[in-house]
């Protein structure tokens, strides 16, 4: 037994000597940067489904200039992103809603990187589809569907509609889209009523499968980026913003993705449900690598990717404000 332990100790000392030798030869990396190799290391991000596609694009572009950087990106909802970053599970939380006061107290630091919107969705096979596109629904009528459930059939909203049921789909996970949609009605996510579905893709699929369904989605899960039009079997239910019982020409900006993102950028589409998309770090980051990546996504090259991918770029004034947080 004594001989075995002695051999283990000798092996351990020998291994330590090798590691020490290797370490002395390796370039010194401080916060993800070394003079010899430039930026290197791992960046982990998790959170909002809304930000996930954009972060994948940004990470691939960033790696072209910094090949020694590796990314680990996962989508699980804004609530997961906040929880992960505050517990040190990831470097950056992807968040698509306003931060709660208690999250800020725990050290959450938000940096706005883009804008988008949550939109009301329905199935084109709904027997009231044509009438709904012309009429739209007011904020109060939508609250009667999603909050207090005073409307259980389409006919209860308008006698011209059919008496078919309104099947409501909401998010089951802690989600920025749900929080933003609820905020449109001055409520919180837990006040939304309906069948809980996990994730943005889940709600989109539920709407496609149910001609009486109504829900809400991030823009990118409704519009096809290549065609600039909505995907098959899902469409946007317009908002009757001035409450006059019809969708006026200045309220009709859902025909193409380009028209909708312009409406978000100009404020024609209200906020909420338009919203900021943010990177959240735990306290002010000291990592040179994280600072470099966040700075990159706020530069013209990265911001130029937004419109073509269904997002709205930030103004130069806002970009300067966000860069000052680093």
Description:
The protein has 326 residues and is of the alpha/beta class. The chain folds into 2 domains: 33-115 and 275-323, D-Maltodextrin-Binding Protein, domain 2, CATH 3.40.190.10; 117-273, Periplasmic binding protein-like II (D-Maltodextrin-Binding Protein, domain 2, 3-Layer(aba) Sandwich). It is built from 12 helices and 11 strands. It has helices at residues 2-25, 52-65, 78-86, 101-105, 129-135, 139-146, 176-184, 200-209, 257-266, 288-297, 300-303, 316-323, and strands at residues 33-34, 38-39, 41-47, 69-75, 92-95, 108-122, 167-171, 195-197, 213-218, 235-236, 274-282. Strands 3, 4, 5, 6, 7, 8, 9, 10 and 11 form a 9-stranded mixed sheet that branches. Mean pLDDT is 91; it is low at 1-30.
């Amino acid at each position: 037994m004594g001989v075995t332990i002695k051999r283990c100790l000798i092996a351990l000392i020998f291994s330590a000597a090798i590691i020490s030798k290797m370490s002395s030869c390796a370039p010194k990396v401080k916060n993800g940067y070394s003079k010899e190799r430039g930026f290197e290391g791992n960046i982990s991000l998790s959170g909002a489904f809304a930000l996930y596609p954009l972060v994948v694009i940004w990470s691939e572009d960033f790696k072209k200039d910094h090949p020694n950087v590796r990314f680990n990106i996962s989508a699980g909802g804004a609530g997961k992103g906040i929880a992960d970053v505050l517990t040190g599970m990831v470097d950056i939380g992807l968040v698509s809603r306003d931060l709660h006061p208690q999250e800020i107290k725990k050290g959450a630091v938000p940096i706005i990187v883009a804008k988008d919107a949550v939109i009301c969705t329905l199935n084109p096979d709904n027997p009231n589809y044509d009438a709904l596109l012309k009429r739209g629904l007011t904020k109060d009528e939508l609250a009667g569907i999603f909050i207090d459930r005073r409307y259980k059939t389409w006919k209860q909203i308008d006698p011209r509609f059919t008496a078919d049921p309104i099947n409501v789909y909401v998010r089951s996970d802690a989600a920025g889209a749900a929080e933003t949609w609820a905020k449109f009605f001055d409520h919180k996510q837990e006040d939304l009523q309906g069948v809980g579905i996990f994730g943005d893709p889940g709600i989109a699929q539920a709407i496609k499968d149910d001609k009486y369904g109504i829900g809400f989605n991030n823009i990118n899960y409704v519009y096809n980026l290549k065609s600039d039009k909505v995907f098959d079997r899902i469409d946007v239910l317009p908002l009757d913003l001035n409450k006059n019982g019809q969708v006026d020409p200045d309220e009709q900006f859902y025909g193409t993705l380009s028209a909708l993102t312009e409406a978000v950028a100009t404020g024609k589409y209200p906020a909420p449900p338009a919203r900021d998309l943010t990177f959240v770090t735990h306290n002010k980051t000291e990592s040179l690598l994280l600072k470099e990546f966040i700075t990159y996504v706020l530069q013209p090259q990265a911001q130029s990717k937004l419109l073509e991918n269904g997002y709205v770029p930030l103004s130069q004034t806002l970009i300067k404000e966000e860069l000052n947080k680093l």
